[in-house]
Every structure is written in structure tokens, then in C-alpha cells.
């Protein structure tokens, strides 16, 4: 069997043959007059009234029998059969066309065919070709028709081939498009206004998740990719006088992957003024049932080992009552130690040791056996910092979550609109952040200011593409057109780049020409390292800590080496900065003004008084691929401390 490279070489020779004949194998324009779907639908009319029809698509099969060649082509709307003949009933130009077709075409080529429609003896709708034209010569063969791509990673990496050879996958993504269309149309029919809110935020809000952090060059400040579909923005629209809004858009959460979670996904959130969580529950039940019926033609599904019917009565599950029923733990009165002991007894791993994480982990254990459809209500206040408290039980909140197949597939609240309460809850979230909880919600004090101006009672709700994945009973990654993949190296191995290319280093360079005292050198290194860590974020860490034999945690240093070197003049550091910026490396700078005062406004004012050539650099840190950093810092000696 010929190798892929040998097959490619043969196709390259066919490509050259086309070029030698003066034929463009990749023309910019097609003269197709009908799609395959239209040709099939209007076949009788086209066969009797149209003498010259032009169809086109990718060749999916070829079979030659002497002077006759049949092939099927696919244009995205359907598959159609074509026939080429080479006998005395056709003119010379058609014979020439047949001969060229036989020499240069392969399965996978895009072609355009001109001819007339007829039905074969076996009843197959066919176009008899009088002329054809190459639209795009394929240089690589398609996957074997009946088996397609078998390796999962290869399927995701070459999704275009996966979809081409797998009609069920094409159908899945057409259903997913309809899934969002039905959602949008349902909400619009209920009077909701579709809006767009920022995807870059100074403070992430509306969810508890670790964000992706980047840097806004023009404003010179850190920003985050949003972790909710504009929750705090849409609530501002409630205050602005819009009674009903919604948005469908992408979210980004810098967390682990699982069959139910990805770092980038589509979500919908709506906000409904003058409504509460009970109104939201009724609307959501109607919406989910409508989506299921219109997209899938049924309300009954089997997924994740559970079977449920959305047309059944939706049960109400009380958060704390269900946990107590299954585990015996009262999560309102139990101590952290008691909850931890129960998790250990159940053999459940828990991420984090604060009460919020422990409580959430215990619930996730309990939810697995709930098939649904059901609504989870009465969450503890601690796990819902944006929800209104229950008037009859201030330890819980007016939150609701649809449960299907042992998992939550949506999240809604009677939104908190008491600014005093909201400020206190944000202060608690701030303490969680300071204690090391990376998923705690960032306080948004300008949002509190908005609440002080007044926001009406509001119900908010959101769900993501995980709901679609549950309906089709597939991992959420399988339902994304192009899931994120690690790049392949030159040998085709994903994520196995050479060490030199993959390793990143940080090099801090001290200006010895500035005659700094020892404390000033340490201060410079400290500020450069702190700025680097703050700007770059969590991706500096391969793991948060290491553990001693007796179970004590020691925070682990960052995985990227920080090397300290020394320069002898400000000019050397300015040259380093210029080269590093051009190469796209991360740069931190420390100047004389920064060591003279810790007041940022004074630093900015003093800097504003000088031209760049007057600025004295005390130190610079550059971070990036080892090869690039080494190139720009090789002339500097290692720091001696003298």
C-alpha cells in the first residue's frame, strides 16, 4: 500500500498536468447554477426544461467501467451522481474532457459539472456530463469512507474531515445551531431584548471561576476574559429601564476540562425585571421543553445513565434537606471538620478547605443520583453571593438550578438588589480571595454603586452548551466544532515540542551602573518579580504546593526559572527592552522614580516630567521562550552580588 507521501506525490503530478495544459486548478469563480438539494427537489422540472445545468461539489466516490465513469459529489446540501461517457454518441470535446478527467481527478477533488439530468435504469437521479472543470485539486486523500478518522485527537484536530465523513456529526452541529436559534426565538417571543456586553473586563463577575488574564496595551492595565455572559452588565440594564434582556455569547474559564466542562464555551443569560426565582422556574421549564421538542422532536432523553422526560412534573429538591437525607450532614450547623470527615468517609476528593468549597463538594456527591427533571432550591447563602436571601430563612437564598441526569444544567436567582447586603457579601468574597480561594468571586464595587441608585426586583438565569451535550448524550468537547488542541510539532506529535522551544525563562537584569545599595538591588528584584507574577497570573504555576511526609503544605515556587544578571548602564537595559518588545516577550521595568516613592501618582507625575532618554532604568525583567530570552540577555553576566 502506498504511503500518504507517495499518494501526495502522484496528486502533485496530476496538478502539474493541469497547469501544463493551461488550466487553473484553483479558479476563483464557479458557474454553478443550482445546489444539489435544489436539483433533487426540482428534478423533474430541471430534467425536462433545462438543457444545460451546472452542479458542483467534492468527489466522494469514483468508479470507472471502460468508457463509462460514475462518480458521486457532495456540495454540503446533498450528494448527487454524475456520469461521463466516452463513445460515439458524444462529440470530440466531450471525449477530450472525459480523457482529462480520467487522468487528473481523485476522490476529494472539488469539481464543477455541466450537463443534463436523467434517471438511470436503476432509478438513480444523475447528471450526464458534457463538460467539467476543476475547482480545487485535493493533494491529500480523504479518510477511508466507511471508517473515517478513528483516533479521537486526530478527529478533533482534523474536524473538517471528521464532519465530511460522518453524516451524524454534521447533523449534530446542525441541531446545535437550531438549539441556539430556538433559544433566541423563544426569549424574543417573550419580549426579551437581545444585547451585547463586554467580553474584556477589569473585574470578572457573575460567577465563581478562575479567569483568563491578559494585558491591555493601550490602557496599560490587566484585563480578564469574562466568566459570565454580562451578568453585572445586564443588571445595570435593569437599572437603566430595560425590563427584559438576554445575551448568547462565549465565556472563558481558566480551569480544568471534563466531560461537562471546557475553558471556552457558549452560554445564554437572561434578566427579567419585576420577576422572582419562581417566575424564572416556570419560564425555564417552558423554555427547556420547547427547545427539546423543536430541536429533537421529543421531550424524553437518556443520558449519563439516566432517563428523564421534560414533560413530566419537575420535582423540587431542597439543597440542605437532600444533603442531610443522603449523608446525615446538616450543612448549616455542621463544622468544617465534620464536613471534611464525611467527605473523607465517602472517599470524595475535595478541592480547597474553606466552607464554601467543602459544601459544594458534598452537594456534587449527592446530586449524582437525581435523574430529573427537577429544580434545586434553597442553596446556602455562602455558595450564592449574588442571590437574594430567603425571607423565612436568611441562611439560604432564592436560587434555582435545573437538574438533569445527575447534574445542574442551568443557574438562576432572585437577584440581590440590596446594596448593603451585596457589599457585605463581596467583602466576604474578598476575604476568600485573600485566603487563596482562586474561584471566589471578584468584588465589583462599581456594581454596588449601581445598586445604591436602585435596581428593580429581578430574576436572572443562564445555561450553556452543556445542556445541548446532555440532550445528545455526548461529552461537551464532542459537541464543539473546533475544540482547543495542543499544537503538533514537526513530527506530528501533539504537545511534544523540543525542550528548548517549550521551556520558558524569566531573566531579571540589574543596572550596576546605578550604584545601588544592597537593599535597593533587592527591592528592584522584588518589585520586578512581583509585577511579573501579578501580570502573568496563575499559569506561572505547574502546581500550587508540595506536601511533606506529615501532610504539611509548602507553597511551590513558580515553574519558570528566574535568573538574575547584571548590566552596567541604563542604555543597555533600554536596548534590551526595545529588542524584547519587538520579539513579543513579557517585560517588566523598574526606574529610579519607582524606588524613590511607593505612591503611584507621584511616580507617574515625576515620569511625566521627563523624556524617555532621561529615565534611569534600575532593572528590567524579560520572560518568554528560553531561546529568545537567551539571545537578548547573553551579553550580561550573572549577578555577582558585589
Describe the structure.
Helix content is 36%, strand content 25%. Residues 495-501 have low confidence and may be disordered. α11 (336-346) runs parallel beside α12 and α13 (419-434) packs antiparallel against α14 (445-453). The radius of gyration is 32 Å and the shape is globular. The chain is built from 21 helices and 28 strands. A hairpin with a 5-residue loop joins β4 (110-119) and β5. The strands form 7 sheets. Strands 6, 10, 11, 14, 15, 18, 19, 20 and 21 form a 9-stranded mixed beta sheet that branches.
Features:
single chain, 642 residues, alpha+beta, nine-stranded mixed beta sheet, five-stranded mixed barrel, 21 helices, 25% strand, globular
Q: Which structural category fits the helices and strands? A: alpha+beta
Largest sheet: 9 strands, mixed
**How much helicity do the residues have?**
25-40%
Spans of 5+ residues with little confidence (pLDDT < 50)? 495-501
Q: How big a fraction of the residues is strand?
A: 25-35%
Alpha carbon gap, first and last residue:
68 Å
Shape: globular
Count the DSSP helices: 21
Q: How would you classify the quaternary structure?
A: single chain
CA-based gyration radius = 32 Å
The tally of strands reads 28
Mean pLDDT, rounded to whole units?
A: 87
Amino acid at each position: 500500500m502506498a504511503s500518504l507521501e507517495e499518494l501526495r506525490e502522484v496528486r502533485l503530478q496530476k496538478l502539474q498536468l493541469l497547469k501544463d495544459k493551461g488550466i487553473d486548478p484553483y479558479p476563483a469563480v464557479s458557474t454553478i447554477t443550482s445546489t444539489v438539494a435544489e436539483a433533487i427537489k426540482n428534478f423533474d422540472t430541471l430534467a425536462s426544461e433545462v438543457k444545460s445545468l451546472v452542479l458542483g461539489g467534492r468527489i466522494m466516490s469514483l468508479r470507472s467501467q471502460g468508457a463509462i465513469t460514475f462518480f458521486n459529489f457532495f456540495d454540503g446540501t446533498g450528494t448527487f451522481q454524475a456520469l461521463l461517457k466516452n463513445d460515439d454518441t458524444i462529440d470530440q470535446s466531450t471525449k477530450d474532457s472525459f480523457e482529462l478527467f480520467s487522468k487528473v481527478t481523485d476522490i476529494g477533488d472539488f469539481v464543477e459539472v455541466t450537463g443534463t439530468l436523467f434517471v438511470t435504469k436503476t432509478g438513480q437521479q444523475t447528471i450526464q456530463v458534457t463538460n467539467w472543470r476543476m475547482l480545487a485539486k485535493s493533494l491529500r486523500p480523504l479518510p477511508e469512507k466507511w471508517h473515517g478518522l478513528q483516533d479521537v485527537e486526530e478527529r478533533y484536530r482534523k474536524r473538517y474531515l471528521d464532519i465530511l465523513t460522518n453524516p451524524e456529526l454534521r447533523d449534530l452541529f446542525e441541531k446545535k445551531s437550531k438549539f441556539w436559534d430556538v433559544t433566541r426565538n423563544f426569549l424574543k417571543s417573550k419580549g426579551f431584548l437581545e444585547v451585547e456586553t463586554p467580553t474584556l473586563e477589569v473585574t470578572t463577575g457573575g460567577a465563581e471561576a478562575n479567569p483568563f488574564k491578559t494585558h491591555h496595551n493601550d490602557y496599560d492595565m490587566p484585563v480578564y476574559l469574562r466568566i459570565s455572559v454580562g451578568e453585572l452588565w445586564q443588571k445595570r440594564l435593569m437599572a437603566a429601564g430595560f425590563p427584559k434582556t438576554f445575551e448568547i455569547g462565549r465565556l472563558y474559564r481558566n480551569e480544568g476540562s471534563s466531560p461537562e466542562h471546557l475553558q471556552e464555551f457558549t452560554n445564554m443569560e437572561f434578566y427579567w425585571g419585576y420577576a422572582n426565582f419562581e417566575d424564572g422556574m416556570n419560564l425555564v421549564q417552558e423554555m427547556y421543553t420547547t427547545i427539546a421538542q423543536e430541536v429533537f422532536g421529543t421531550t424524553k432523553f437518556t443520558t449519563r445513565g439516566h432517563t428523564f422526560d421534560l414533560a413530566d412534573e419537575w420535582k423540587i429538591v431542597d439543597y440542605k434537606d437532600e444533603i442531610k437525607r443522603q449523608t446525615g450532614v446538616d450543612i448549616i450547623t455542621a463544622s468544617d471538620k465534620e464536613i471534611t470527615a464525611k467527605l473523607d468517609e465517602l472517599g470524595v476528593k475535595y478541592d480547597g478547605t474553606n466552607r464554601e468549597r467543602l459544601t459544594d463538594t458534598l452537594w456534587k456527591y449527592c446530586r449524582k443520583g437525581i435523574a430529573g427533571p427537577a429544580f434545586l432550591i434553597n442553596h446556602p447563602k455562602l455558595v450564592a453571593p449574588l442571590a437574594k436571601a430567603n425571607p423565612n430563612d436568611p441562611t439560604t437564598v432564592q436560587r434555582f438550578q435545573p437538574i438533569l441526569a445527575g447534574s445542574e444544567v442551568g443557574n438562576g436567582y432572585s437577584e440581590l438588589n440590596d446594596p448593603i447586603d451585596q457589599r457585605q457579601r463581596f467583602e466576604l468574597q474578598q476575604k476568600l480571595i485573600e485566603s487563596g480561594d482562586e474561584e471566589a468571586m471578584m468584588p465589583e464595587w462599581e456594581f454596588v454603586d449601581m445598586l445604591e441608585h436602585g435596581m428593580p426586583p429581578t430574576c436572572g438565569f443562564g445555561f450553556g452548551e452543556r445542556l445541548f451535550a446532555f440532550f445528545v448524550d455526548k461529552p461537551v468537547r464532542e459537541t464543539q466544532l473546533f475544540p482547543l488542541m495542543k499544537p503538533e510539532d514537526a513530527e506530528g506529535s501533539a504537545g511534544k515540542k523540543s525542550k528548548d522551544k517549550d521551556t520558558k525563562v524569566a531573566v531579571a537584569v540589574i543596572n550596576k551602573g546605578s550604584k545601588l545599595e544592597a537593599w535597593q538591588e533587592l527591592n528592584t528584584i522584588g518589585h520586578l518579580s512581583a509585577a511579573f507574577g501579578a501580570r502573568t497570573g496563575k499559569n506561572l504555576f505547574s502546581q500550587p504546593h508540595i506536601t511533606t511526609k506529615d501532610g504539611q503544605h509548602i507553597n511551590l515556587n513558580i515553574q519558570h526559572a528566574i535568573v538574575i544578571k547584571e548590566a552596567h548602564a541604563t542604555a543597555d537595559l533600554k536596548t534590551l527592552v526595545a529588542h524584547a518588545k519587538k520579539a513579543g516577550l513579557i517585560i517588566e521595568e523598574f526606574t529610579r522614580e519607582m524606588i524613590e516613592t511607593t505612591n503611584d501618582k507621584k511616580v507617574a507625575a515625576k515620569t511625566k516630567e521627563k523624556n524617555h532618554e532621561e529615565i534611569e532604568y534600575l532593572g528590567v525583567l524579560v520572560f518568554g521562550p528560553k531561546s529568545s530570552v537567551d539571545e537578548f540577555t547573553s551579553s550580561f553576566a550573572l549577578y555577582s552580588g558585589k
